């Protein structure tokens, strides 16, 4: 059990470092956040489920445009961190006006922290990182993930990837991943 906690803590630290790097890169370019950090929201599993069904077409359009985007793919290659995300207008130039309007709509409708594309030597994965909820020494986070196949979803359920993640399928390829961490 101690090993699982250590892995969870290490993953949390690496996530914070990766997000910090993205923030530093994005903000050093003079970019603006798509939504104010004050507008980022934590969503329960039930709320995220409702938001998914209300925005299903939009979410699939955004997922497809992000995963097929050459600029985003180049960021994955250049940053060498295994994932890259959208939280500011830094990546706007990579997308058509319609694609960018859809990305902004996802931020306006779901109030996430970031839209992410992940590879880490595996098939591309898309996910939406929502806000965290802290209650005492416990932090809760829910993610909306899209996996290209069952093998990739199973890989993410392995200890060390999402050691305490609870996966709930919503639709073809789409899952809510609930996480809980204590400090």
The tally of domains stands at 1
Mean pLDDT: 85
Lateral strand order in the biggest sheet = 1-2-3-4-6-5
How many H/I helical runs? 6
Percent of residues in β-strands? 15-25%
Biggest sheet layout = 6 strands, antiparallel
Strand/helix succession? HHHHEHEEEHEE
**SS class:** alpha+beta
The radius of gyration is 16 Å
| Straight-line distance between termini | 15 Å
Shape: globular
SS elements, strand count: 6
* Low-pLDDT sequence parts: 20-29
Please supply descriptive tags for the structure shown above.
6-stranded antiparallel beta sheet, single chain, alpha+beta, 44% helix, 183 residues, 6 strands
Task: Describe, in plain words, how this protein is organized in 3D.
This protein has 183 residues and is an alpha+beta fold. The protein has one domain. 44% of the residues lie in helices and 24% in strands. It is built from six helices and six strands. The chain has helices spanning 2-28, 45-54, 56-67, 70-79, 97-110, 150-156, and strands at residues 83-86, 114-118, 125-135, 138-146, 166-171, 174-182. A six-stranded antiparallel sheet has the order 1-2-3-4-6-5, sandwiched between helices. The radius of gyration is 16 Å and the shape is globular. The relative contact order is 0.16.
Question: Mind sketching the topology for me?
Answer:
Blueprint: H1 2-28, H2 45-54, H3 56-67, H4 70-79, E1 83-86, H5 97-110, E2 114-118, E3 125-135, E4 138-146, H6 150-156, E5 166-171, E6 174-182
Antiparallel strand pairs: 1-2, 2-3, 3-4, 4-6, 5-6
Helix pairs in contact: 3-5
